[in-house]
Design a protein that fits this description.
Layout: E1 4-12, H1 43-55, E2 58-62, H2 63-72, H3 82-89, E3 92-95, E4 107-109, H4 114-124, E5 127-131, H5 134-142, E6 148-154, E7 173-176, E8 181-182, E9 188-196
Parallel strand pairs: 1-5, 1-6, 2-3, 2-5, 3-4
Antiparallel strand pairs: 6-9, 7-9, 8-9
Length: 210
Protein backbone atom coordinates (compact mmCIF):
# COMPACT_ATOMS: atom_id res chain seq x y z
CA UNK A 1 0.00 0.00 0.00
CA UNK A 2 1.38 3.40 -1.00
CA UNK A 3 1.83 5.84 1.85
CA UNK A 4 0.41 9.34 1.96
CA UNK A 5 2.01 12.78 2.17
CA UNK A 6 -0.12 15.11 4.32
CA UNK A 7 0.56 18.86 4.62
CA UNK A 8 -0.67 20.70 7.73
CA UNK A 9 -0.65 24.50 7.51
CA UNK A 10 -2.01 27.19 9.79
CA UNK A 11 -3.04 30.26 7.82
CA UNK A 12 -4.81 33.59 8.09
CA UNK A 13 -7.79 34.65 5.97
CA UNK A 14 -5.38 36.34 3.58
CA UNK A 15 -3.31 33.17 3.27
CA UNK A 16 -0.34 34.05 5.48
CA UNK A 17 1.33 31.01 7.04
CA UNK A 18 4.45 32.65 8.47
CA UNK A 19 5.32 32.20 12.15
CA UNK A 20 1.96 31.19 13.63
CA UNK A 21 3.49 29.74 16.79
CA UNK A 22 5.59 32.50 18.34
CA UNK A 23 7.38 35.84 17.92
CA UNK A 24 10.80 34.30 17.21
CA UNK A 25 9.59 31.53 14.92
CA UNK A 26 10.28 33.32 11.63
CA UNK A 27 10.88 37.09 11.80
CA UNK A 28 12.37 37.21 8.29
CA UNK A 29 11.60 40.31 6.19
CA UNK A 30 10.68 42.13 9.39
CA UNK A 31 7.50 40.10 9.98
CA UNK A 32 5.95 41.66 13.12
CA UNK A 33 3.10 39.25 13.87
CA UNK A 34 4.81 36.06 15.00
CA UNK A 35 2.50 34.08 17.27
CA UNK A 36 -0.73 35.29 15.65
CA UNK A 37 -2.31 31.83 16.06
CA UNK A 38 -2.04 31.66 19.87
CA UNK A 39 -5.10 33.81 20.77
CA UNK A 40 -7.26 31.66 18.48
CA UNK A 41 -6.51 28.23 19.94
CA UNK A 42 -9.49 26.31 21.32
CA UNK A 43 -10.50 22.77 22.24
CA UNK A 44 -11.93 21.79 18.85
CA UNK A 45 -8.85 22.86 16.91
CA UNK A 46 -6.55 21.30 19.49
CA UNK A 47 -8.37 17.97 19.35
CA UNK A 48 -8.31 17.80 15.56
CA UNK A 49 -4.61 18.70 15.41
CA UNK A 50 -3.91 15.99 17.97
CA UNK A 51 -5.90 13.44 15.98
CA UNK A 52 -3.85 14.20 12.87
CA UNK A 53 -0.53 13.89 14.68
CA UNK A 54 -1.63 10.59 16.21
CA UNK A 55 -1.90 9.11 12.70
CA UNK A 56 1.53 10.10 11.41
CA UNK A 57 4.48 7.72 11.39
CA UNK A 58 7.04 10.10 9.89
CA UNK A 59 7.69 13.83 9.90
CA UNK A 60 8.95 15.84 6.91
CA UNK A 61 10.08 19.41 7.57
CA UNK A 62 11.83 22.35 5.99
CA UNK A 63 15.08 23.45 7.63
CA UNK A 64 13.70 26.40 9.61
CA UNK A 65 10.74 24.47 11.01
CA UNK A 66 13.00 21.54 11.84
CA UNK A 67 15.30 23.78 13.88
CA UNK A 68 12.31 25.16 15.81
CA UNK A 69 10.87 21.70 16.50
CA UNK A 70 14.28 20.24 17.39
CA UNK A 71 14.83 22.96 19.97
CA UNK A 72 11.40 22.48 21.55
CA UNK A 73 10.04 18.93 21.45
CA UNK A 74 13.04 16.95 22.82
CA UNK A 75 12.92 19.08 25.98
CA UNK A 76 9.33 17.91 26.46
CA UNK A 77 10.27 14.25 26.43
CA UNK A 78 8.82 12.62 29.51
CA UNK A 79 6.24 15.35 29.91
CA UNK A 80 2.63 14.14 29.80
CA UNK A 81 2.24 15.12 26.15
CA UNK A 82 1.12 12.60 23.51
CA UNK A 83 2.31 14.97 20.78
CA UNK A 84 5.83 15.15 22.25
CA UNK A 85 5.97 11.35 22.54
CA UNK A 86 5.00 10.88 18.90
CA UNK A 87 7.25 13.55 17.42
CA UNK A 88 10.26 12.44 19.42
CA UNK A 89 9.70 8.81 18.42
CA UNK A 90 9.01 8.91 14.68
CA UNK A 91 11.64 9.35 11.95
CA UNK A 92 12.26 12.98 10.95
CA UNK A 93 13.27 13.98 7.41
CA UNK A 94 14.66 17.42 6.63
CA UNK A 95 14.63 19.22 3.28
CA UNK A 96 17.65 21.52 3.04
CA UNK A 97 20.06 22.69 0.36
CA UNK A 98 22.76 23.04 3.00
CA UNK A 99 24.42 20.58 5.37
CA UNK A 100 22.50 21.02 8.63
CA UNK A 101 23.49 19.46 11.90
CA UNK A 102 20.63 17.10 12.73
CA UNK A 103 20.85 16.30 16.44
CA UNK A 104 17.20 15.42 17.07
CA UNK A 105 17.02 11.65 17.42
CA UNK A 106 15.82 9.88 14.28
CA UNK A 107 16.61 12.77 11.90
CA UNK A 108 18.08 12.54 8.42
CA UNK A 109 18.37 14.81 5.39
CA UNK A 110 16.52 14.30 2.13
CA UNK A 111 18.54 13.82 -1.03
CA UNK A 112 18.49 16.40 -3.85
CA UNK A 113 15.92 14.57 -6.04
CA UNK A 114 12.69 15.59 -4.30
CA UNK A 115 10.35 13.43 -6.38
CA UNK A 116 12.49 10.34 -5.78
CA UNK A 117 12.71 11.07 -2.06
CA UNK A 118 8.95 11.51 -1.75
CA UNK A 119 8.46 8.18 -3.56
CA UNK A 120 10.82 6.57 -1.03
CA UNK A 121 8.88 8.01 1.90
CA UNK A 122 5.63 6.68 0.42
CA UNK A 123 7.17 3.21 0.34
CA UNK A 124 8.49 3.36 3.91
CA UNK A 125 5.70 5.13 5.79
CA UNK A 126 1.91 4.98 5.86
CA UNK A 127 1.43 8.69 6.62
CA UNK A 128 4.17 11.31 6.46
CA UNK A 129 3.17 14.77 7.69
CA UNK A 130 4.64 18.11 6.67
CA UNK A 131 3.87 20.64 9.40
CA UNK A 132 4.40 24.33 8.69
CA UNK A 133 7.53 24.62 6.49
CA UNK A 134 5.75 27.03 4.13
CA UNK A 135 8.81 27.60 1.90
CA UNK A 136 9.31 23.85 1.42
CA UNK A 137 5.58 23.31 0.91
CA UNK A 138 5.77 25.54 -2.18
CA UNK A 139 7.93 22.87 -3.83
CA UNK A 140 5.57 20.04 -2.89
CA UNK A 141 2.55 21.93 -4.22
CA UNK A 142 4.32 22.99 -7.42
CA UNK A 143 5.32 19.40 -8.23
CA UNK A 144 2.03 17.86 -7.00
CA UNK A 145 3.92 15.75 -4.46
CA UNK A 146 1.22 15.53 -1.80
CA UNK A 147 -2.01 13.66 -1.10
CA UNK A 148 -3.75 15.94 1.39
CA UNK A 149 -3.52 19.62 2.28
CA UNK A 150 -5.03 20.55 5.64
CA UNK A 151 -5.56 24.30 5.85
CA UNK A 152 -6.39 25.68 9.29
CA UNK A 153 -7.81 29.07 8.33
CA UNK A 154 -7.94 31.59 11.18
CA UNK A 155 -10.18 34.68 11.35
CA UNK A 156 -7.38 37.24 11.20
CA UNK A 157 -5.92 39.35 8.37
CA UNK A 158 -2.26 40.40 8.52
CA UNK A 159 -1.62 42.01 5.15
CA UNK A 160 1.97 40.75 4.97
CA UNK A 161 4.06 37.62 5.38
CA UNK A 162 4.79 34.38 3.57
CA UNK A 163 1.69 32.97 1.93
CA UNK A 164 0.58 29.44 1.15
CA UNK A 165 -0.22 30.51 -2.42
CA UNK A 166 1.93 33.54 -3.26
CA UNK A 167 1.94 35.38 -6.57
CA UNK A 168 3.45 33.04 -9.15
CA UNK A 169 2.19 29.84 -7.49
CA UNK A 170 1.69 26.91 -9.86
CA UNK A 171 -1.92 26.90 -11.14
CA UNK A 172 -3.92 23.92 -9.85
CA UNK A 173 -7.32 22.98 -8.51
CA UNK A 174 -8.04 21.36 -5.15
CA UNK A 175 -10.75 18.85 -4.21
CA UNK A 176 -12.56 19.17 -0.85
CA UNK A 177 -12.31 15.85 1.01
CA UNK A 178 -14.89 16.52 3.73
CA UNK A 179 -17.14 19.36 4.90
CA UNK A 180 -15.31 22.12 6.72
CA UNK A 181 -14.90 21.82 10.50
CA UNK A 182 -15.47 25.05 12.47
CA UNK A 183 -13.99 25.63 15.91
CA UNK A 184 -15.41 27.72 18.73
CA UNK A 185 -13.20 30.69 17.84
CA UNK A 186 -14.02 30.59 14.15
CA UNK A 187 -11.09 28.56 12.86
CA UNK A 188 -11.91 26.49 9.76
CA UNK A 189 -10.29 23.16 8.93
CA UNK A 190 -10.38 22.67 5.17
CA UNK A 191 -9.14 19.25 3.98
CA UNK A 192 -8.16 19.23 0.32
CA UNK A 193 -6.68 16.76 -2.12
CA UNK A 194 -5.18 17.50 -5.54
CA UNK A 195 -7.91 18.31 -8.06
CA UNK A 196 -6.03 18.40 -11.34
CA UNK A 197 -5.31 21.25 -13.74
CA UNK A 198 -7.19 24.54 -13.78
CA UNK A 199 -10.20 24.66 -16.10
CA UNK A 200 -11.95 27.74 -17.35
CA UNK A 201 -15.46 28.25 -18.65
CA UNK A 202 -18.17 30.68 -19.50
CA UNK A 203 -20.84 31.54 -16.92
CA UNK A 204 -23.38 31.82 -19.77
CA UNK A 205 -22.83 28.21 -20.85
CA UNK A 206 -24.85 25.43 -19.14
CA UNK A 207 -21.87 23.42 -17.81
CA UNK A 208 -20.04 26.58 -16.60
CA UNK A 209 -16.76 24.80 -17.23
CA UNK A 210 -17.34 22.30 -14.42
Amino acid sequence: MTGRIVIDLFTTLDGVAQAPGGPEEDPSDGFPYGGWQAPLLDDTAGERVGEGIARLDALLLGRRTYDIFAAYWPTHSGVDSPIAEILNRVPKYVASRGTPTLEWSGSSQLGPDLAAEIARLREQHAETHVIGSVDFVQSLLAEDLYDELNLWVHPVVLGQGKKVFPDGATPATLRLLEPAVTSEKGVLLLRYGPGGPVRTGDMDKPDRGL
